[in-house]
Write a structure and sequence with these properties.
The complex is a heterodimer of chains A (365) and B (249). With 365 residues, chain A is of the alpha/beta class. Chain A has 18 helices and 16 strands. Chain A folds into 2 domains: 2-239, Rossmann fold, CATH 3.40.50.300; 250-364, CBS-domain, CATH 3.10.580.10. Classes of the chains: A alpha/beta (365), B mainly alpha (249).
Amino acid sequence: MIRLEQVIKLYGETTAVDGLSLEVTRGEVCVLIGPSGCGKTTTLRMVNRLIEPTSGSIFIDGEDTSRIRSEKLRQSIGYAIQSVGLFPHMTVAANIAVVPELLHWEKQSIATRTEELLGLVGLPYAEYVGKFPHQLSGGEAQRIGVARALAADPPMLLMDEPFGAVDPLTRERLQAQFVRIQQDLRKTVILVTHDLDEAIRLADRIAIMEAGRLVQHDTPETILSRPANKFVHDFVGTDRALKRLSRIGITDFVKPAVFVHVDGSVEAAILACSECSWVWVVDDANRLVGWVDRNSLSGASSVRDSVVRGDTEEIALANTATLREALSRMLGQGLRSIPVIDEGWRLAGQVELGDIETATSEARD
Amino acid sequence: MMRTGQARRWLVLGILVAAFIVLITNEQWWEAVFRSLFPEESRVLHPRASLFVLVGEHVLLVLYSSSLTVLIGVPLGIWVTRPGGRSFLPIVSDLTSFGQTFPPVAVLALAVPMLGFGLQPTVLALFLYGLLPVVRNTIAGIGTVSPDLVDAAHGMGMTRARTLVRVEIPIAASVILAGVRISVVINIGTAMIGAVIGAGGLGSPIIAGLVQDNLAYILEGAVPAAILSILVDQFLGNIERNFFHEMDR
C-alpha cells in the first residue's frame, strides 16, 4: 500500500532521513518510533509531500507520489497532528467538513458524514456540532482531530503523535478508542510517537529509527523478544518482558477452573479443596460469587455460608484483559491464580501465575 | 445569527448617524448656538460652503484615502508574509514607518507641483500617512496564526491560496480590522490639512478661523469632525466585534 524506497532527506549538511526503505501493507498500523531527531516526523511528512524527499521514491498503491499533485495526494490521506490544529474560527462541523468540501461533496452528505463521525469518536452530535474549538477539552479536541482526519473516508491515515498533548488517563482512553475504531475501519496507518508503550499498544508493526535509518521493522512481539541490536535493546528498556505481556491477551492462557455451586454440599467442596486448597463458587447462572477454602469450610453447614465474598470486579479479570493486567492483579491481591469472567460475569476459567512465568521466559529467548 | 447585544449596538449607531445627519443639515441651530457663544463675531458660520457639504467633502477625502490605504496596505502586508515576499518585509516595514514619520504637510508640498492643488495630493498624503497601522497590523495578524494551523491546512490538501483565504485571513481579521480602525480615525483628523491646498472638508472653516481669529469657525470644523471620528470608530468597532463574536458565540 505505502512503500518507501531508498528515501533520503538532506537539510544542508545534515541528513534527516538516510536511505529509508519501508513497506506498510493495507490495513496495517505502522508505528514510527525513535529518539528525538531520528527522522520519524520527517519521514511521515514526506509521505504526503509536506516535505519533498531529496532522493528516493514513495509509492502509494504502486503509484509514485511525486507524480500526483500534492494537494490531491493530501486530500486522499487523513492527517492528524499532536497540536490537533483545529481551526479556531470554525465550528466542529466546519472543521470536520474541510476535506469533504475540498472534494466538493454535497452539503447533505457532509452533514450525514459529520454525524456519523462524531458518533464514531463518541461525542454526542447535537451537543458538539456547533461548538468552537476553544470550548473543547484537550481530549475532545484530539477526538475531533481524528474525526476530521477520517472525514472523507481516506484509505490511509498519517498521525503525528495524535495522542501526545493530553493527560495520561485521557491518552489511554483515546488509544483504546483508536484500537476499537481501527478494528472496524482497517485503515492503513502510519503513526509517529516517542512513547514505546503507545507503540506496543497500537502497532501491528513497529519501525524503530535511529539517526535517519531504519534499525528494526517488525511486530512488537519480535522487537521485544528479539531486538536487532544494542540500540533497540536499550531503547525497549529492561522492562521489555513486562511490555511484552501487555501484547498478549489472556484468552490463550485461560484454564478450566475448579468450582463448586453455591448451594452444593460442603463435603464436595472440601474434597475439591484437597486438590488445590481453594475453589471458586458460582451461582445458578454460573456467575462468580467468591471462593471457599478449607479454613472457611471447616465446621460450616453450607457452602453459601462459608463463601469468602470479594468484590468480583476486584478479583476477576475480563476475558479481554492482557497478561500484564493479570500479573498486576495477582501481585496486587497476593494470589497465584485469578478467575476470568466473560461479558455476562460468568466464570470462564482462571489464569495461573506459573503460565505467565512461562510466557515471560519465552520472551527471554 | 446576530446576538441581541450586537443588534443593539448597530441600532444605537444607526440612531446616532441619523441624529448627526439631522444636526448638520440644520445649520440654523449651529448659528444660534455660536451667536449666543460669540456675540461679538459678525459671521459665525464659514461662508465657503454649507456644513453638510463640508462634512460630505471630508467624508469623501477620508473614504478615498482610507480605501486606498486598505486596498494597498492589506495586500502589501499579506504579501510580505508569503514565502515569495518575505525578503521584502524589512523594506516594507521601514517604508511604511517612514510614511508615517514623514509629515503629511511635507507630502503636500512635494506633491502639489506634480499633482496640482485639490483632492489628489491630499488623498496621496493621507494614504501614505495611514498606511503604517494597516500594514503593521496585517503583518502582525497573519503572524498570530499558529504554524500548526497552516500545517494542518496544507496537510489536509488546501492550496496555499485557500489556506490564506479560509484560515489565515479569517483568524487575522480582528487584528487587521483594528489596524484599519486606527488608520481611519487618524485619517479623519489628518484630513483637515486638505483645506490648505483647496481640497475642502472640515479643515476649511478651521483654517479660516485660525487666519481670521474666529473661534466659531474653528468649532464649526472641529465639532463635526470629532463626532465623525467617534461614529466611524464605533462603526468599525462593531464590524470588528462581529468577527470576534462569530468565534465566541
